């Protein structure tokens, strides 16, 4: 969960592209959702294996959102005129924040890579909204790096609403109008000693369905930043978590421990009995605080990505490695793929709402590996990583 496109290309919230990730409203921030707490902390469904096979998770062409159209130049805004454009609303300020974050993160990644450059695709939708997908591929440092933003209007069919907001007692009878905006990124370095990073921050609103006039508009924030290394360097993991804690502590000292646990619980690969990586922070359905405070909090988290990650990459990108260490990295990437395609509600949401496939799946690496019954030698560096994924640690 957890990947983001959330996939927010039509929002796919958790991880991939623009994740607008999972929006569930129940009262347990620790069970499964890519992002954390709402009014009375949401209850998230347990991360159980889907009851229907993945082949059924195909886009419902649809009902929900019109197909995107590629454009040669990005517009000044993706907001509809009816929303007032850049009028100072939460929608407009969140859009400005994700555009600025995309610029700053891409500039930092190009600088550290030294050779690769981002390819950019901008797109719009007939009913309003659009997005910008940026991908750096086969660079000197990064095998694949995607940084996507999207601002999307649409109507969620019941299936997509259930994927986005998983509370069993909060199911709408018919299509639900929505607005979703977010930034999502997944960064896969070439060097096995340099960690993969995922982050995704989003804002989501639903409007009253036509058959329920007068129903209040709902809104919430979600997102998170998490680290997925193939090898553990404790100083790197402590640095990463300390930046997350610093961002959280500016707003509420309870945020870091709460969202750190949420992250550990969300990125759990149930069929493997292990986490995808070494965590970070994750929250969803967050609307039980002042809206202005949460907008500032999401902005602080997005602005913390570069200082949390770039120093680690600078330190590890040129570390010598052998074929065995590269193979281990690809095995861990296999776990990354498994989580995104089996458990990530953002990916499911993007597929069910007819999202832009290239943006939704941008989080997947160029290469991954699956070996039959692979078990690292106990006490080895590979075993230490796996142990930390099975038994989450407090790093700071």
UniProtKB/TrEMBL annotation:
It comes from the Eukaryota. The gene is LOC107915439. Belongs to the aerobic coproporphyrinogen-III oxidase family. Its EC number is 1.3.3.3. It is an enzyme of class 1 (oxidoreductase). This is coproporphyrinogen oxidase. Homodimer. One of its GO terms (cellular component) is cytoplasm. GO terms for biological process: chlorophyll biosynthetic process; protoporphyrinogen IX biosynthetic process. The keyword Oxidoreductase applies. It catalyses: coproporphyrinogen III + O2 + 2 H(+) = protoporphyrinogen IX + 2 CO2 + 2 H2O. One of its GO terms (molecular function) is coproporphyrinogen oxidase activity. Keywords: Oxidoreductase, Porphyrin biosynthesis. Pathway: Porphyrin-containing compound metabolism; protoporphyrin-IX biosynthesis; protoporphyrinogen-IX from coproporphyrinogen-III (O2 route): step 1/1.
